[in-house]
Every structure is written in structure tokens, then in C-alpha cells.
Amino acid sequence: MKRKLLTSYVVILLVGTLTTGWLSYSFIRNNNLRNLELALGSYANLITDSLQVEQQSGELRNFFLLAQKYAGRTGVRVTLLDDAGNVLADSADNSIIFQNQLRRPEIQFAMNHEVRGVRRFDENTNQETMFLALPPLDLEESVVIVRLSAPVDALLRESLVFLRYIALSILLGLVLAMVVALVNVRTIVGPVNELTVAATRVAEGDFSTRIEVRTRDELEVLANTFNSMAKELEKTVSTMQQQNVELDSMLSGMTDGALAVGKHGEILLVNREMRRLFPNLGRNLTGESLDMAFREFPEIPGIVRDTVTAEEAITRESRVEIGDDFRILRIKSSLMRDHKPDRPLMGVFLLIQDVTEVRKLENIRSDFVANVTHELRTPLTLISGFVETLQTWHTLTESDRTMALRVIELETERLKRLINGLLSLSEIENIETRTHWRPIPVDSEVHRVAAMVQPLVEEKRLRLTVSTNTPNVMINGSPDWFRQMLMNLVDNAIKYTPAAGNVAITTEQTKTTVLITVSDSGIGIPAEDHQRIFDRFYRVSKVRGDDTAGTGLGLTIVNDIVHELGGSVTLESCPGRGSSFTVAFPSSAADSCPTNSSS
Known about the structure:
By secondary structure, the chain is α+β, with helices and mostly antiparallel strands. The chain has four domains: about 1-150, Beta-Lactamase (2-Layer Sandwich); about 265-355, Beta-Lactamase; about 375-425, no CATH class; about 430-590, 2-Layer Sandwich (Heat Shock Protein 90). Helix content is about 50%, strand content about 20%. It has helices at about 1-55, 65-75, 105-110, 155-205, 220-250, 270-275, 290-295, 300-310, 355-390, 400-430, 440-450, 455-460, 480-495, 540-545, 555-565; strands at about 75-80, 85-90, 120, 125-135, 135-140, 145-150, 255-260, 265-270, 315-320, 325-335, 345-355, 440, 465-470, 475, 500-510, 515-520, 570-575, 580-585, 590. Strand 3 and strand 4 form a beta hairpin. Helix 4 crosses helix 5. The longest helix is centred in the N-terminal third of the chain and has 56 residues, at about 1-55. It is flat, with a radius of gyration of 44 Å.
């Protein structure tokens, strides 16, 4: 009977206290929220009245400043929107101007001419917030919706404080009612609960958890054992985390791809550079089969198998096709073994280096050296031979001496042209020369070049036509480069055009491009040579003959100058029908400037 009465008393006390506390808590919370809603409504009406007054006074409004001003006066967040839901200004976070608010419930109420507070979670502030918006306000030039908002966390916390007091009262009542019954149970249940909570925290990763039990029995021994276990776990996990951070930093900073493969062919590790080299790989490769992940690149699984079979490191270069491109990869493999005495195999580690650009540069350097050597050998051989001939000066006739000296002079000039061409290429590729750039008048430079080549034109009895249609166009660049580009094109046209032929220089401007065209009626260039005509030292000797052979650098210099100036050069030519070189500069690289009326 005593136990039943005690139980009934505790139950009635608990139910009555909980009911009263919950009703009180609900009343206070709802009353606080209602007061906040009324306050937001009052603030919104005041802001609306202020906007109308400013509209009547004719003052030019800045919505961003207005939002800040009203927020400072009211202490709440102010948002101004148009009737399409677009944010005009926000006092707290102007980044929401890119977010349309039309579907927000408070805006929907406002569009229906209803004023109603809406409590919802605000994604921008990550807080529970009360929103209230007034119907659209017509300000003649624009329609404005005033929306105010304020976080309700403080109000809810006040309500929770009251709830905690109620809970404290309940607990005190229960403690007084059950103190005797709980005294003996607490000595057993308390330590067990502490161990349970501590074990849960350790399972969740909090290895710093410790408990203190002073029962002088088996529970105290169990607690001390738990503390020792947690300490060892914390030390081990901390060491592993530090090692993982160091490994991740090292792999992320590597300029080579790294791939670790387990002994069963599963992928253990892939670094960032490896994903850059093979962009088609999946996102989560750890644990995936190597053969499946690299089924499009069989070279990788192949070197892994060869390494395991040979039980030694292997270095190999492979040409791998990735999409429409290809890469040359240097793959270095090494065996991963355990530290145990028998050193069992754990897997294979691959270090993959992209040497595509290195190989290209090596080929370019090799070709360049071979071309320069070939170009230097011929004139030097001729000069050396005729120098030996001139050593027998007294036995030579006057015509033989003159011919030998003439050949030496011609080959010397050829060497000078070759060296000057190489120096020009070097200057063009030197970015520091851009500091000397300035506006270049296109038409003036064209006429200047035409005047410079006039003696050559008259000597070959050619007809030179100049048609300039860009009187006000200026191109930003090096005048010397620009002039050399034109000279090379015109000189080529004159050189490869037979007597009585035609050479024309034209300029024109479209909406997007400035065009400079040098055309001739010369011998032309075969179609198979078009792709290589701008390569260094390349000459179309089959058609043009050796009597007009140059250094093979003229069009290369033209191509490099045009690209440095931001343009492009194209060729149209047929054998026997002449050639036409067109240089195009985008309008962004040219300016149209007014000319002086007196010029």
C-alpha cells in the first residue's frame, strides 16, 4: 500500500507539474512571438510612411542606404523587394539580391494584400526567424515591398529558461519524493551510466573522454581500465592523423602522379596530379579494381603486373591517348613490402611523370640545331673553298678572282641575313620588348614600306598597287616589328614574282577585324606546302628554285610578329597563279582615332 501511494503521488505530481509547466511555457512563447509580429508590423508601417514622405518630397532614393538607415533605427533586418520578388536591397546581406523571394510565404501573403508573420528557418543567417511583409507600395517609378525580419532564437531561449525552471521544480519535487529510494540505486546506476556515455563518446571519435569513479569496488577498477584504454586510443589515433596529414600534404604538393595499388589489384591511394593526368577517372577510386578504373589505359595495369612478376622496380615511357590528345608518360614502379622479417609484398607504388612537353622541347631543340647547322654549313663551305682558291692569287685570272670574291661576298651576306633573322626571332620571343609598344598608324606604315621597296619594284619592272582603307586605324605594338612584318611579306612577293608582274598591298576594316593583304601574281606555292610554309628554315625549293632562296626565316618572323601583336596570318596560293597573305588583327587590338583635318 505504501509503495502504491507513493507511486500515485509521484505520478499525480509529475503529470500536474508537467501540464502546468507546458501550458505556461506555450503561453509565454506564443505571447512573445505575437509581440514580435506586432512590433515588426509597426516598424513596417513606419518605414512605408517614411518612403511615401520621401516620394512626395521628390528625393532620389538609394535603396541600399534606406535599408541600412531603417535597420539602424528599428534594430531589425530590412529587405526591400520589387513586385516580382527581386531583392532591391538588404540591410544584412546584399548577396541575396541574386535570390528571387517571390515564393516565400510572407511575400505570397503580401501579394494577396495580407499582413501575416511567418516563422521559418532563414538559410542566409542559419537562424529561426520571424518574417513579415507589407503589400506592394506604389512609388510611381517603382513598386516596393517592405519586408522585416528578426531572429526568434532569443525569444525561444527566454521561453526555454522558463521551461528549465519548471523542469528544475519537477526534479526537486521528484528528488524529495524519491530521495530514500534512489540513494542506494544511485551508487550502482550512476557509474554505469557514466561508463555508457563515455563509451558512446569514444565510439563517436572523442578519445579525450575520461571518467572518475570512487566506489572502491569493481566499478572503480572498470572505470580505471576504461580510462587507460581511451588514453592509448587517443595517442594512437593522434599519431595516425598526423601521419595522414603529412602524407596528404606531401601527395598534394607533388608535381607527379602517385598511385598505390594493393596486392590484390585494388587501388589504395590516388593523388591530385594523377586525376589531372587522367581526367576520365571516377571520383571515388579507393578500393576499386585497378583493371576496371584504368580499362581505357592498359599501360598502367600492365606495368603493375610486370613489376609484381619481376619483383623489381621498372621505369618505362608510354604514349597514352587521352581524348583527342596524347601524352608521353614516364612511369616508375616500386614494390611496397611490409616491415615484418619475411617482408611480404603489400602492393605496388607508381610514380607517373608527364614528360610530353619535355620531349617536344627536345625535338624542337634537335630540329633547330640541325637546321641551323645545315644553314651555316653551306655558306661556310663555299667561303672556305674560295678562300683556299684565293690563296693561289697569282695563278688566277682577273675574272676568277672577281668571281671568288663575289661568291664570298654573297655567302657572307647570306650568313648575315641568317644571323639577323635568328636575332629577330629572339627579340620577338622576348616579352620585355613589349614595354616599347605604342600605337602604330596602319596606313602610314603601309605607304612607308611601299616607298622603301619601290627601287626593287622598278628594278624587276613590276607594278606595285597600294590601296589603304583604314585611315584612322591604330594598332598597338612595336613599330619596328610591324614594319619588318610588312617588309618580309612584300619582299617575298617581289622576290617570287616574275618581271612585269603585279604586287598589291590592301588594307580594310570590318566590324570585328582589321585586314592587311599582300598579294602577287608570282609563281605561287603548292597546297602541300601551306601547312609548313611558316616553319623555321622551310623553303619551297621545288617551285621557287635556288636562285631566289632566302634563309627560310622570313615567314617565320612574320608569323611570330603577327601572333605577338594578337593577330593571325593566312595564305591563299596556287602554283602559277600567285599568292595572297592576309594578316588579320581583331578590332580589340586596334583603335580608331580621329585624324587632324590639316593632314
